[in-house]
Amino acid sequence: MRHYLISTIPLTRPPEGIPAHQLEVGELAEVLEGTDRGSILLRIYNGLVSLTDPQRIWTSHHSVDMLPRFRVKKLAIGTTVHLTIY
Protein backbone atom coordinates (compact mmCIF):
# COMPACT_ATOMS: atom_id res chain seq x y z
CA MET A 1 0.00 0.00 0.00
CA ARG A 2 1.32 3.43 -0.92
CA HIS A 3 1.61 6.17 1.65
CA TYR A 4 1.48 9.83 0.79
CA LEU A 5 2.55 12.89 2.67
CA ILE A 6 0.08 15.72 2.34
CA SER A 7 0.98 19.24 3.33
CA THR A 8 -0.92 22.47 3.08
CA ILE A 9 0.19 25.98 2.39
CA PRO A 10 -1.75 28.66 4.27
CA LEU A 11 -3.76 30.95 2.05
CA THR A 12 -2.11 34.33 1.82
CA ARG A 13 -3.45 37.45 0.21
CA PRO A 14 -1.60 38.54 -2.89
CA PRO A 15 0.40 41.71 -2.36
CA GLU A 16 -1.57 44.86 -3.02
CA GLY A 17 -0.70 46.89 -6.09
CA ILE A 18 1.70 46.15 -8.91
CA PRO A 19 5.46 46.52 -9.40
CA ALA A 20 6.30 50.11 -10.42
CA HIS A 21 7.96 48.98 -13.65
CA GLN A 22 4.58 47.68 -14.92
CA LEU A 23 3.05 51.16 -15.12
CA GLU A 24 2.28 52.46 -18.61
CA VAL A 25 3.65 55.81 -19.83
CA GLY A 26 1.49 58.63 -18.42
CA GLU A 27 -0.01 56.62 -15.55
CA LEU A 28 0.08 57.96 -12.00
CA ALA A 29 0.50 55.77 -8.93
CA GLU A 30 1.11 55.94 -5.18
CA VAL A 31 4.11 54.09 -3.71
CA LEU A 32 2.98 51.46 -1.19
CA GLU A 33 6.30 50.51 0.42
CA GLY A 34 9.83 51.59 1.19
CA THR A 35 11.28 55.01 1.92
CA ASP A 36 9.16 56.62 -0.81
CA ARG A 37 5.89 55.26 0.60
CA GLY A 38 3.03 57.67 -0.08
CA SER A 39 4.83 59.44 -2.92
CA ILE A 40 2.97 60.00 -6.18
CA LEU A 41 4.80 58.74 -9.28
CA LEU A 42 4.40 59.52 -12.96
CA ARG A 43 5.54 56.92 -15.49
CA ILE A 44 7.57 58.62 -18.21
CA TYR A 45 9.03 57.18 -21.42
CA ASN A 46 12.36 56.11 -19.91
CA GLY A 47 11.48 55.73 -16.24
CA LEU A 48 9.60 57.18 -13.30
CA VAL A 49 9.51 60.60 -11.67
CA SER A 50 8.20 61.40 -8.20
CA LEU A 51 5.71 64.25 -8.29
CA THR A 52 6.04 64.45 -4.50
CA ASP A 53 9.79 65.11 -4.81
CA PRO A 54 10.67 65.82 -8.48
CA GLN A 55 14.39 65.43 -7.75
CA ARG A 56 13.67 61.69 -7.31
CA ILE A 57 13.90 60.16 -10.78
CA TRP A 58 14.44 56.54 -11.76
CA THR A 59 15.50 56.05 -15.37
CA SER A 60 16.42 53.08 -17.48
CA HIS A 61 17.74 53.63 -20.97
CA HIS A 62 18.21 49.92 -21.67
CA SER A 63 15.49 47.88 -19.97
CA VAL A 64 12.41 48.35 -17.78
CA ASP A 65 13.92 45.62 -15.60
CA MET A 66 16.31 48.29 -14.30
CA LEU A 67 13.43 50.29 -12.80
CA PRO A 68 12.64 49.98 -9.07
CA ARG A 69 10.76 46.91 -7.86
CA PHE A 70 8.67 48.58 -5.15
CA ARG A 71 4.91 48.12 -5.35
CA VAL A 72 2.55 50.89 -6.35
CA LYS A 73 -1.20 51.43 -6.51
CA LYS A 74 -2.46 53.06 -9.71
CA LEU A 75 -4.50 56.20 -9.16
CA ALA A 76 -8.06 55.87 -10.43
CA ILE A 77 -9.06 57.51 -13.69
CA GLY A 78 -10.41 60.97 -12.92
CA THR A 79 -8.23 61.48 -9.82
CA THR A 80 -7.19 65.11 -9.50
CA VAL A 81 -3.59 65.78 -8.52
CA HIS A 82 -2.77 69.35 -7.45
CA LEU A 83 0.85 70.35 -7.92
CA THR A 84 1.89 73.41 -5.92
CA ILE A 85 5.27 74.96 -6.66
CA TYR A 86 7.10 76.64 -3.78
What key attributes describe this structure?
mainly beta; 6-stranded antiparallel beta sheet; elongated; single chain; 86 residues; 0% helix
Blueprint of the fold:
Elements: E1 18-19, E2 28-31, E3 40-44, E4 47-50, E5 57-59, E6 71-74
Antiparallel strand pairs: 1-6, 2-3, 2-6, 3-4, 4-5
Written overview of the protein:
- The structure is a single chain.
- The protein is an all-beta fold and 86 residues long.
- The protein has a domain at 18-74.
- Helices cover 0% and strands 26% of the residues.
- It contains no helices and 6 strands.
- A 6-stranded antiparallel β-sheet has the order 1-6-2-3-4-5, with no helix packed on it.
- The radius of gyration is 18 Å and the shape is elongated.
Q: Report the count of strand segments.
A: 6
Shape estimate:
elongated
Which stretches of 5+ consecutive residues score pLDDT under 50? Answer: none
The secondary structure category is mainly beta
Q: What's the number of helices?
A: 0
The overall pLDDT, averaged over residues, is 83
The span between the termini is 77 Å
Radius of gyration equals 18 Å
Described by strand count, sense and barrel closure, the largest sheet is: 6 strands, antiparallel
Order of helices and strands: EEEEEE
* Strand fraction: 25-35%
Taking strands numbered 1, 2, ... along the chain, how are they ordered across the largest sheet? 1-6-2-3-4-5
Helix content: under 10%
Give a nutshell description of this structure.
With 86 residues, the protein is mostly beta strands.
